[in-house]
């Protein structure tokens, strides 16, 4: 995972094992974490996020909702449900 501050509009990269459901790395600018609805799966906590997905060249793919392992989410967003 990249170490950027999401409040600045940074794009985060998550490994395939750290999000559900897709293949390859996920590159997303996180706009919202649905923190009020954590998901228990595989003995871990996961959160749904909403944001804008990018390809590896930095081109916008479009809006994306994904379920991401809580331990990989940016700390400043873990408790945000804005």
UniProtKB/TrEMBL annotation:
The protein's name in its UniProt record: Uncharacterized protein
Phylogenetic lineage: Bacteria, Bacillati, Actinomycetota, Actinomycetes, Micromonosporales
């Amino acid at each position: 995972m990249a170490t950027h501050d999401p409040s600045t509009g940074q794009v985060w990269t998550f490994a395939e094992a750290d999000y559900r459901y897709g293949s390859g790395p996920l590159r997303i600018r996180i706009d919202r974490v649905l923190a009020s609805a954590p998901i228990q799966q595989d003995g871990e906590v996961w959160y749904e996020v909403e944001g804008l997905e990018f390809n590896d060249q930095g081109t916008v793919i479009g809006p994306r909702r994904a379920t991401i392992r809580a331990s990989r989410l940016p700390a400043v967003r873990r408790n945000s449900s804005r």
